[in-house]
């Protein structure tokens, strides 16, 4: 079965980025992406670009959550003041990684570019409204973090 | 779309989405009309840009060459192999075509498998012999195995009847000439059969030893077998299937 996605370095990078964000280990992330590509090849999804794309992210998330279990739950709206800008990158990344699932995956996929909001919802089993609410909460929590640092 | 719905929709806005999704375009229209939405929207876009940049930094610079690109190249190489797999439409079409031609060949071979060396001569001989009626035979009523002497006296040097037909009774017998070959011809009482015994070699007629071959004819059909160059051809009124059935019955007995 022909694999129609990914086909280039940028698309591979998107997969690696997501795997690395969820797992935190570069070597493991590369291995997970490679394994997912190999399993994609045998799937009917491989012949249709959108399905191949969703399958890859879905599988990476499944493997990485198995390797690195994360608490699940909803993100709360921060009670305190919010800043107008974010703190330094490392703190943002650390904070995003600490978010519960599926918010954490939603943020990673939303700030990536490989999946449309609609496809993110399909991968994470979230409605467009739920996804919109979660992304709004991600932003306000990051800005609250900025206020704390300031 | 009201401001609240637009706000929610814009939560998922990424530059360029308006071209893809009409709901995003509607939300942007609301945004243009509602100045209160602007500050928050701009701040959201600023956060998103920073986060996108941050995620962009998580690239696979080192792992790309070592692991990911080879993995993708391997899959793409297999992709080329897969194009030649049996289930690809092109290959499938060629394979089906090949199977069709092969099947046709096998069918033609099987259809032709009744043919044997000297088939056409056997058909002619059978057709000529079955034009006679019993009145043209010498009345000889005996078992076929007893006809050896009668035919010897009438110029047939070699005579042979398959064991399964040995006890069939004759109504009459005669010697006919076919392409300068003497042929023993017997009218048999059972099922109005007619049998021919002859040396197949001068006529080029040869059948695999111990096997029967069949000739579809109208109104008579025939079966022929051979032993040591001597052919035994038996005809009955009916189709090839009738002859096959008759041979099976006779051999069963």
Please explain how this structure is put together.
The complex is a heterodimer of chains A (150) and B (253). The longest helix of chain A has 22 residues, at 128-149. Chain A has 150 residues and is mostly helical. Chain A is globular, with a radius of gyration of 16 Å. Chain A has two domains: 9-67; 89-149, Orthogonal Bundle (Arc Repressor Mutant, subunit A), CATH 1.10.10. The model of chain A has no long low-confidence stretch (mean pLDDT 88). Chain A has seven helices and no strands. With 253 residues, chain B is of the alpha+beta class. Chain B has three domains: 3-56; 74-111; 119-252, no CATH class. Chain B has helices at 3-10, 17-20, 22-33, 38-56, 61-82, 89-111, 119-129, 148-153, 240-252; strands at residues 138-139, 170-178, 181-188, 194-199, 213-215, 220-227, 230-237. Chain B has a seven-stranded antiparallel sheet with strand order 1-2-3-4-7-6-5, with helices on both faces. In chain B, α1 packs across α3. The termini of chain B are far apart. Chain A binds chain B through residues 1-3, 6-7, 9, 12-13, 16-17, 20-21, 26-27, 29-31, 33-34, 37-38, 41, 84-86, 89, 92-93, 96, 107-108, 110-113, 116-118, 128-129, 131-133, 135-136, 139, 142-143, and chain B through 8-9, 11-12, 14, 17, 20-21, 43-44, 46-48, 50-52, 54-60, 62-64, 66-69, 71-72, 75-76, 78-79, 82-83.
